[in-house]
């Protein structure tokens, strides 16, 4: 089991009913059940092929009675007894489309939503902020020289987050930690490289300089 799935499983509230949207091979629901994090789980995917593999993996672990596979486009066929939804391993725009198609009324039935996007987690934080939802956990996962950030949130009301929180993280800045400091250094190095190749004194350069300032302050 890879580190990313383990870390996301650790974020799930204990004793809940889980829906893993975009489950692929059901590794997350299997781990969550085996670790006694959840009572029951739904492994949901839009594609039949991955679901067939998921079924075999579930059967191999003798977890047929606790994990059900569901062919579903986003929340479309997700049962209403679900407490926690995980959307992981996809791009931001795909995850956003799933969340927006569900709508606030459906999302508000969940006690916890965990979303991990492959790139640009700041776009996800901005979406959460624009909807005045509340971020309650963030996890930085560095695996095979790639950074993943999983964000847990609820639909409880929250004031808009600051620009530095949207870019650098809400809880990640508070927790700091060695991994996060290295992560900040990587962001600073990337922005510095872009600035070196982009000498024009325009709005884009000003935006990059502001981002660099936020990352330096986040350390």
UniProtKB/TrEMBL annotation:
Pfam families: Methyltransf_18
Highest taxon of the lineage: Bacteria
GO molecular function: tRNA (adenine(22)-N1)-methyltransferase activity
InterPro entries in alphabetical order: SAM-dependent_MTases_sf, TrmK
PANTHER family assigned to the protein according to its UniProt record, in alphabetical order: TRNA (ADENINE(22)-N(1))-METHYLTRANSFERASE
Protein name: SAM-dependent methyltransferase
Organism in which the protein naturally occurs: Solobacterium moorei F0204
């Amino acid at each position: 089991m890879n580190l990313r799935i383990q870390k996301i499983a650790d974020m799930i509230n204990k004793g809940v009913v889980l829906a893993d949207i975009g489950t692929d091979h059901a590794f997350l629901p299997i781990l969550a059940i085996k670790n006694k994090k959840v009572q029951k789980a739904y492994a949901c995917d839009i594609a039949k092929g991955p679901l067939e593999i998921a079924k075999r993996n579930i059967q191999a672990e003798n977890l047929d009675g606790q994990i059900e596979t569901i062919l579903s486009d986003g929340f479309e066929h997700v049962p209403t007894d679900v407490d926690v939804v995980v959307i992981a391993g996809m791009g931001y725009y795909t995850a956003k489309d799933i969340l927006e198609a569900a709508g606030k009324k459906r999302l508000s039935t969940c006690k916890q939503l965990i979303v991990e996007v492959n790139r640009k987690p700041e776009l996800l934080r901005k979406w959460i902020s624009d909807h005045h939802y509340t971020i309650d956990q963030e996890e930085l996962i560095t695996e095979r020289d790639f950074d993943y950030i999983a964000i847990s949130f609820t639909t409880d009301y929250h004031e808009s987050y600051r620009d530095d929180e949207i870019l650098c993280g809400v809880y990640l800045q508070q927790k700091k930690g060695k991994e996060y400091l290295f992560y900040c250094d990587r962001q600073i190095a990337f922005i510095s490289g872009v600035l070196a190749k982009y000498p024009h004194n325009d709005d884009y350069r000003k935006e990059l300089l502001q981002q660099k300032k936020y990352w330096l302050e986040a350390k």
